[in-house]
Amino acid sequence: MIKFYYNTAPNPTKVALCLEEMGLPYDLVPIDTRKGEQHTASFLAVNPNAKVPAIVDDGVTVFDSNAILLYLAEKTGQFLPAKSPAARGEMLSWLMFVASGIGPYSGQAVHFRNFAPEPKEYAVNRYTFEAQRHWGILEARLGKHRYMCGDAYTIVDMAVWGWSRLIPNVLGADTAKQLPNLQRHLGEISARPAAVRALALKDKHTFKTDMDEAARLAMFPHLAKKVA
């Protein structure tokens, strides 16, 4: 049985979708990051980077959401592209594009707009610009292909879906209308039974919602330590 360390953030949600799509049994281990549970010794033994998601699969530990998607796909042989070097290269390129671009820039855009102290105009402009640029690349890709790797639904689409549900939070309420291909892709995946089950995990555990001082320090520990 896979132990799945999760909360309701975009990265754990994409792993939840993957687990549900693959029909893999798993035990949920909630990690409430606003309570600082990601910094406990027991969780750091699973992921020394103090981030969710992570899984433990029969003694094998994997952390970082896109690494988990790839691990599970290779374990099961599901939701991978055709077996050719070209198809694998394409899949890895887009999977890492989401990991190194979409997630970080979207997350930082939200952070600097909603949580950072003033002055923050430069940071908000930089990260919003980069988030828009990265999402624009996916919009163009999905204008040419049904899915990220062509006609086949793969783990790359799951990685995109984890974040594309939150485009209004990242880029603004009206931005989704400017990304019709992403909205088509989002709607198609969200209608899948596995996605419905993945989103229902939010009802399995009550996570802290208040962003009080304790939560801010737990999620943004740099606030307690000046290093520059």
Description of the molecule:
- Helices cover 54% and strands 8% of the residues.
- The protein is built from 10 helices and 4 strands; from the N terminus they run βαβαββαααααααα.
- Strand 3 and strand 4 form a beta hairpin.
- Helix 1 runs antiparallel to helix 6, helix 3 packs antiparallel against helix 6 and helix 5 crosses helix 8.
Give a topology summary:
Elements (H helix, E strand, L loop, with lengths): L1 E5 L3 H13 L3 E5 L10 H4 L9 E4 L2 E4 L1 H12 L8 H30 L6 H24 L10 H10 L2 H5 L8 H11 L2 H7 L13 H7 L9
Parallel strand pairs: 1-2
Antiparallel strand pairs: 1-3, 3-4
Helix pairs in contact: 1-3, 1-6, 1-9, 3-6, 4-5, 4-6, 5-8, 6-8
| Number of β-strand runs | 4
Strand order of the largest sheet: 2-1-3-4
- Cα shape: globular
Average of per-residue pLDDT values: 97
Gap from first CA to last CA: 44 Å
Report low-confidence residues grouped into runs of 5 or more.
Answer: none
Q: Summarize the biggest pleated sheet.
A: 4 strands, mixed
Q: What is the helix tally?
A: 10
The portion of residues forming beta strands comes to: 5-15%
Structural Rg: 18 Å
Estimated structural class: alpha+beta
Helix content range: 40-55%
Compressed to H and E, one letter per element, the order equals: EHEHEEHHHHHHHH
TL;DR?
With 228 residues, this protein is α+β, with helices and mostly antiparallel strands.
